[in-house]
Amino acid sequence: MSGRIHIGNDRPPFLRPNRVVSLVPSLTELLFDLESGDTLVGRTKFCVHPKPDLERISVIGGTKNPRLEKILRLKPDLVLANKEENREEDISTLVDGGCQVWVTDVDHIQENIQLAQALGDLLEKEAPALRIAESFRTSIASIRELVPIEEEIRVLYLIWKGPYMAAGSDTYINSVLSHCGLINVTADLGDAGLRYPEITAEMIPDLDIDVVLLSSEPFPFKAKHQSEIYATFGKSSVIVDGEAFSWYGSRLLKTIPFIQDTVQNIKEIAR
Q1: CB atoms < 10 A from the CB of 156, how many?
Q2: Average pLDDT of the chain?
Q3: Which of 99, 193, 199, 258 minimizes the number of CB atoms within 10 Å of its CB?
Q4: Which pLDDT belongs to residue 187?
């Protein structure tokens, strides 16, 4: 029996789920913050928040290599997925196996509001969803224009090494940077729609970088990489928490102080 798929951040036409498998770490956390953690029966090894509550939940592999047979054995009535984080072929297999799969597609910070309300509506958790949505509105307003337009601080946000890759256009990271008042130098790099362009040494002079941001994930940039970055790019760098800038969902609400401190540090380096 074939299942169904819903793509988007609006409420899918599914019945309220009682058994949920999450293939997305940020959606796992949002599920708990919507007071519905008791419905979760499967999660990825990268689902680490909230840690104490996840110990009892079956691990079904990673986001890119889930154990599909194990997921099907769990008999979920909802699988939470994401267009960027999960593979199309895995989602198709789950649908063919009878699963209802909700594929979210979050590229903009404002879409957190719609996502929280839609998931809360599906789970019949309207009250916590409303609280989270209001918190999103307040939090988004608090980071908007942290850097005045006239300062024009230009940043390069690296997510990978070997080769170097950056967050480009149409990414959630780009949206967060923009809301902080930072200019992402790779947002319009090359052809339109380059989400994660490779950065070569030849490109660096044309990028006009003030500060390089080194994400803690998916590549684990650490302080030891900063001297190498300076040698390559000729610019100072800041280590940033990848969860704060790339995890949509309720993680944003818990990292606003970090984002504000990071932006202040970037401003001081750019002066």
Answers
A1: 25
A2: 93
A3: 193
A4: 87
Asked if residues 136 and 9 have their Cβ atoms less than 8 Å apart, the reply is no
Residues 6+ apart with CB under 8 A from 266: 147, 153, 155, 182, 211, 213, 238
User: Which residues constitute the domain of residue 26?
Assistant: 4-141
Q: Answer for the pair 81, 102: CB distance below 8 angstroms, yes or no.
A: yes
Buried b or exposed e, range 229-239, using 16+ CB within 10 angstroms: beebbebebbb
Residue 55 CA from chain centroid, whole number: 22
How does DSSP classify residue 16? P
User: Measured between alpha carbons, how far is 49 from 54 in angstroms, rounded to an integer?
Assistant: 7
Answer yes or no: is pLDDT of 2 > 90. no
**Contact present, 102 and 14 (Cβ < 8 Å):** yes
Name residue 104's beta-bridge partners.
82
pTM of the model: 0.93
Helix intervals (H) in 103-250: 111-122, 126-143, 172-179, 204-207, 226-233, 242-246
Any idea what the CATH number is for the domain that residue 69 is in? 3.40.50.1980
Let me know whether 134 and 239 are in one domain: no
CB 228 within 8 A of CB 203: no
Triad 29, 238, 185: Cα angle to 5°: 90
